[in-house]
Amino acid sequence: MVTTPHIESETPGPLEGVRVLDLTSMISGPVATMMLADQGAEVIKVEPPEGELVRHMGRNVGGLTSVFLSANRSKRSIGLDLKNPAAVDVLKRLIPTADVFVQNFRPGAIDRMGLGESVVRNLNASVIYVSISGFGETGPYAHKRVYDPVIQALSGLADIQMDAASGRPQMIRTIIPDKTTSVTAAQAITAALFHRERTGEGQHVKLAMLDTMVAYLWPEGMARYTFADRPPEPMKGEASPDLIYLTQDGYITAGAISDKEWQGMCRALDRPQWIDDERFRTANARIVHGKLRREMTAEVLLTRTSAEWLERLDHEEVPSAPVLGRHEVIDHPQIHANEMIVEDVHPVAGPIRQARPAARFDRTPARIRGPAPELGADTMVLLGELGCSAAEIEELVASGAVVAKE
Amino acid sequence: MVTTPHIESETPGPLEGVRVLDLTSMISGPVATMMLADQGAEVIKVEPPEGELVRHMGRNVGGLTSVFLSANRSKRSIGLDLKNPAAVDVLKRLIPTADVFVQNFRPGAIDRMGLGESVVRNLNASVIYVSISGFGETGPYAHKRVYDPVIQALSGLADIQMDAASGRPQMIRTIIPDKTTSVTAAQAITAALFHRERTGEGQHVKLAMLDTMVAYLWPEGMARYTFADRPPEPMKGEASPDLIYLTQDGYITAGAISDKEWQGMCRALDRPQWIDDERFRTANARIVHGKLRREMTAEVLLTRTSAEWLERLDHEEVPSAPVLGRHEVIDHPQIHANEMIVEDVHPVAGPIRQARPAARFDRTPARIRGPAPELGADTMVLLGELGCSAAEIEELVASGAVVAKE
To answer: A240: pLDDT confidence band, cut at 50, 70 and 90?
Structure first.
């Protein structure tokens, strides 16, 4: 484990000098802007007086929940009551200083708040205005509330996970649509920044969670529907067992696609006679007899420990791994080698673990640039930067238009 | 459905003018570069003489498989036998023309091919050199072969999907690690392009599938392990049933988090007495009694059709949706409204469906710029651009160093 990597290096990240005004809440927006913040963008999180929703969901230490800590690090925070015109005025004074303006309210809401694209663009002609939605701006679902499972249901993801025996669709137990939207939004914002850097032109970038998932699942999840010369027919759940095998003392995964890998697997399993078995001799035959092959494999793997099998499989260069519990991920030797988990002491929440940004830039490292902020931690500094007088600030705080950490 | 959107508009994408030399195969690399290609980058897919692996996996029409079509559209293709020094020489003449060089061979392999970073950078000082790996460059797994399920096992994803009753971890039936790596790589490459545009500096960007998944799962999948003041303990599978409910005629999802949503749900379900039930009156109480609440909800939902329930739930503004089969996704009214599925006629494979790029840029639209190429479709043109003489080209083709489509 690595401690406080953000003080190890002061090299700027690839997005150094970019300022993002972030009005998003929950996951899809905040994780997107966190990626940008880790890459050096200055992200100003604009929060309502009560703090955004995720500050209130789950166990918290000093008012900071684990999800908030992991979706909002490296950011600054300003508390603004956008129902109060004085707070809207503060935001409008911040807008000309920003490169990117991001919001994920339901379609139409931001216009009713008086912060639609035309208003923002009048204040900052070249801003990149980003709207993240659940379903898109028009259509029968556009007005609806969204949670991650709704997108799992509509996008076909729950259908893909269908239980073969019962035919019941199943949810994935982690919020794939939310987080895939985050990464996709971060990419789109970055592409718009690149275009603006070349041409000076800002634009409106729109991204729907539903669209994100359809595009994301398409290449293989929808492979059956790629050829359009026949009507789309329903697919059953995967009849074949998945690649998780029980050993004497735990679970492992192992899979062989090429002939070479399959031959290695037969040797590792002490079943050399399977190599010349007609049912498994070619890649195609192994697909045709996949269910049988996996059942036969499972029977053999029950007879030794995970460590024994993994050593044998690795020796034969068969792709394989233990199925780790989440608690084991943190201390796995490969995770250590990658310095993937970072321990740090949050000034309020105490010792915390974070996963570092995944992509490594050798000249402009992405890194955790600071802890997730307390609500309004940067309000005073930001108002000062805008040239607000002490009397003005006092009035803003007293009226409740802004919230500042003491 | 929308037909041939790539001829509707000739507006440049946000990455117009960027040239990518793409040596990747399978999914993680190709889907990443396809995102860049849809956004206007010129992606040159460098393929071995037999074509990359995905050309040979699954049903094909005219030599084009569905996965290949959906992971390689908008690209050009050159066939190069990189075991042949004459082909390596061709690639080295292409390198100075590129902005980005991407490869996803196992660590060390690209150096043995004579195309490691220092070689490439000698030919093009400011190139962005991208290495996508399974596990990272060092550590006990670095040398191993990787498939998507191996990363699902090691990253905790299979643990998250654990079956609560049996305690057996489960795989997700779609290649989440591969595709999340694609989107993450596309974002990192775009950030490196932005930095280079500002400073002229290229760099080496490295991304491991394992790191991608740990970072991606972290915010809520690993929430329990964020606070580092206690040793990591194993987590059981989710005890609570998931949010999929059987109705009289199918499956729907519905969920209420806020008080307002819960009250709406009670009304939609004709169970107004649940509103004042102490077990469900606060958000926290509803979490504590989550299992019971879902079981009671399931019992009620069995009594009417999906359409009836969805209308009632929507009327009360409760987030809800039908659980669509993949074949239904294609024709769902919201997918139509979003113009998400594009039908086109591939010159070789015939009529095909694609999902358009998810993010919408109003000034520089991302769009499908052309069909997935046949192997070596652009070899002749690219050799011509490099100034190769007719005799030289003939020799390259005759020796098998390059493969060109007739």
So the answer is: low
The CATH code of the domain at A2-219+340-403 is 3.40.50.10540
Q: How far is CA B153 from CA A7, A209, A363, B149, in A?
A: 33, 26, 32, 6
Nearest CA in chain B to A152: B323
Q: Which residue of A has its CA nearest to B132?
A: A359
Residue from A51, A2, A76 nearest A370 by CA:
A76
Kindly determine whether residue B183 and residue A187, on different chains, have CB atoms separated by under 8 Å. yes
Q: What confidence tens digit (pLDDT) does each residue in B259-285 have?
A: 999 999 999 999 999 999 999 998 889
Going by C-alpha positions, the residue among A233, A253, A250, A249 that lies closest to residue A241 is A253
* Residue owning tokens 């969920």: B255
User: Hey, how many other C-beta atoms are within 10 angstroms of the C-beta on B18?
Assistant: 26
Chain A residues near residue B216 by CB distance under 8 angstroms: 179, 183, 358
Q: What is the Cα B366 distance to its own chain's centre?
A: 16
The Cα of B77 is separated from the nearest Cα of chain A by a number of Å equal to 19
Q: Tell me the shortest Cα–Cα distance from A194 to chain B, in angstroms.
A: 5
For chain A, helix, strand, coil in percent to 5 are 40, 15, 45
Cβ contact (<8 Å) for B242 and A170?
A: yes
Question: Residues A185-212: what's their mean pLDDT?
Answer: 98
Architecture of domain A251-322: 2-Layer Sandwich (3.30)
Tell me the pTM. 0.95
Q: State which residue of chain A sits closest to B230, comparing Cα positions.
A: A351
CB-nearest partner of B141 from A31, A187, A334: A334
Question: In angstroms, rounded to a whole number, what is the distance separating the alpha carbons of residues B124 and B35?
Answer: 24
CB of A180 closer than 8 Å to CB of A210: no
Task: Name which CATH class applies to B2-219+338-403.
Answer: alpha beta
Q: Is B178 one of the annotated active-site residues of the chain? A: yes
Reference B220, options A340, A355, A344, A325; nearest CA is A355
* For residues A115-126, average pLDDT: 98
- Asked if B2-219+338-403 and B251-322 have one fold, the answer is no
- Reported as a single tens digit per residue, the pLDDT across B109-154 is 999 999 999 999 999 999 999 999 999 999 999 999 899 999 999 9
Q: What are the pLDDT digits (tens) for B207-229? A: 999 999 999 999 989 988 999 88
All structural domains of chain A with their residue ranges: 2-219+340-403, 251-322
The nearest CA of chain A is from the CA of B346 a distance in Å of 10
